[in-house]
Design a protein that fits this description.
By secondary structure, the protein is of the alpha+beta class. The protein has two domains: about 200 residues, Multidrug efflux transporter AcrB transmembrane fold (Up-down Bundle); about 80 residues, 2-Layer Sandwich (Alpha-Beta Plaits), CATH 3.30.70. The protein has ten helices and six strands; from the N terminus they run H-E-H-E-H-E-E-H-E-H-H-E-H-H-H-H. The strands form two sheets. It has a four-stranded antiparallel beta sheet with strand order 3-4-2-5. A two-stranded parallel sheet has the order 1-6. The N and C termini lie far apart (about 60 Å).
Length: about 300
């Protein structure tokens, strides 16, 4: 394994020179994500909007048109049907029924009676409107608390400038992930919230590795220009961070291809999150730190100002 290298160990890529390009691309993508969220919105799953999801398996390849007409004739509202993996597996989704949990369960019984005993019922998930509202609030709260705790952790471990850079990077990752779901119309459910929290942890780990090297070099190379020091820091950890990202991506791609439909949404979100999380550590978190400066840079500026004032 010693000879395996994605990139050489002594790279000298001028990341800070490309930071303006990174700001431009990320700014456009984040703005587009916010517009998509406001105009199109998320395709909320049953976890957040309530309703019933039934997964069935038929003996022969399923006839979706026939199944759809049968279920729509039950007076339960418009039903959504789609293949769920193989042609024999079908996912049936119906909206929230008036009358609470009992009405939802009655709707499930109607569907079972209409489809008959030849259908194998793989899973039945019923979520009422009250529970779905609570789940939505708790999901948003979980993401907000995670971002706040990251802010506190980075602030205490490094400096407030580092904390703001890390938060900017994480908010960038979350915004782009939500924008992608709005664009593609993918179902947004509790497993996606779990994936977003995992993305926050992964992206933070990448950022902390770079920040730790920057802090080390700030003490070691006190006269090196700040932008050069940051480029040097990123290049010194680049082989390690890229190898980690590629290893994680290989595992996630395998899970997405062969893991089945149940975890497909989670693994797809994680694949996207690893890519944008790695990018944001290089082109968002570190350039923001360059803009804000560090106590060392502030001290050097104060000394230069004092020297200039002391000159006749």
């Amino acid at each position: 394994m010693k000879g395996i290298r994605l990139i050489p160990d002594d790279t000298k890529i001028p990341f800070m020179r490309f930071s303006r390009f990174g700001y431009l691309v990320s700014g456009i993508l984040c703005a587009a994500s916010i517009i998509l969220f406001a105009v199109v919105g998320l395709n909320m799953g049953v976890d957040f909007k309530g309703g019933t999801v039934i997964t069935i398996r038929t003996a022969q390849p399923a006839d979706l048109d026939s199944l759809r007409s049968t279920i729509n004739g039950l007076g339960l509202g418009a039903a959504e049907l789609q293949e769920f993996g193989s042609p024999n597996d079908v996912l049936i989704r119906i909206g929230t029924q008036e009358g609470g949990e009992q009405a939802q369960q009655a709707a499930v019984n109607k569907i079972k009676q209409a489809l008959g005993s030849e259908v194998d019922y793989r899973s039945v998930e019923v979520v009422g409107p009250k529970v779905s509202a609570e789940l939505a609030e708790q999901g948003i709260l979980a993401v907000v608390i995670a971002l706040f705790l990251v802010l506190v952790y980075i602030w205490f471990r490094f400096e407030w400038q580092f904390a703001l850079g890390a938060i900017a990077s994480l908010m960038h990752d979350v915004t782009l992930t939500i924008g992608l779901f709005c664009l593609l119309g993918l179902e947004f459910n509790l497993s996606i919230i779990a994936a977003i929290l995992t993305i926050i942890g992964y992206s933070l780990n990448d950022t902390v590795v770079i920040y730790d090297r920057i802090r080390e070099f700030l003490r070691k190379y006190k006269s090196m220009p700040f932008a050069d020091l940051m480029d040097f820091s990123i290049n010194s950890v680049l082989p390690r961070t890229l190898m980690t990202s590629v290893s994680v991506l290989l595992a996630l791609i395998a899970l997405y291809i062969w893991g089945g439909e149940v975890i497909a949404g989670f693994t797809f979100t994680m694949i996207w999150g690893v890519i944008v999380g790695t990018y944001s550590s290089y082109f968002i978190a570190t350039p923001v730190l360059l803009l804000l400066g560090t106590p060392r840079e502030a001290q050097k500026a104060a000394e230069a100002k004092a020297q200039a004032a002391a000159r006749p």
